[in-house]
Sequence to fold (34 residues):
Amino acid sequence: MKENKLNLSISEIAVLRIEHKAAKKKRDADRIKA
Fold:
């Protein structure tokens, strides 16, 4: 089970990181507006 998590493909990791960055940018923008 643990090995499955380590075997995430690089593209999946890239997508997760991009989504995380986008979410962070959105949060920052919301904070600036507030």
In short: The mean pLDDT is 86.
